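Weekly puzzle thread! Below is a chain. First person to post its structure in token form gets bragging rights.
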Amino acid sequence: RDLAANRLKKEPNPIIVNEDVAEIVLFDRNDQVKAKAVIDVDDVDLVKERRWGLSGNYVASRCPFFIHLHHFLIGGGSMIKFKDGDPLNNRRSNLMRVGNGKAKWPV
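Winning reply:
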């Protein structure tokens, strides 16, 4: 199925729900599928109304305000580390708050 067909630029992203994970389909400026971000099925209702895209290597939304997906899911104000080093994996089990910003980030 063509996920970009008949898609309006301002519409929220399609979300593919599997058994215990869901994928947010991310598009480039030409409406081509660029990547898929993984989230927990329980978080679908939280993210489904926003339009998500890539900001560098991270998933982010700009409307109505800029926020990275990982901060949107577990709250801002602190550094968040991706346990597996993959910023497209935004399952809560992969997100870890780290202290005062002195964490060593995966390479």
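Puzzle host: Confirmed. Bonus trivia for everyone else. Strands lie at 15-17, 21-27, 33-40, 52-55, 58-61, 67-68, 79-82, 95-98.
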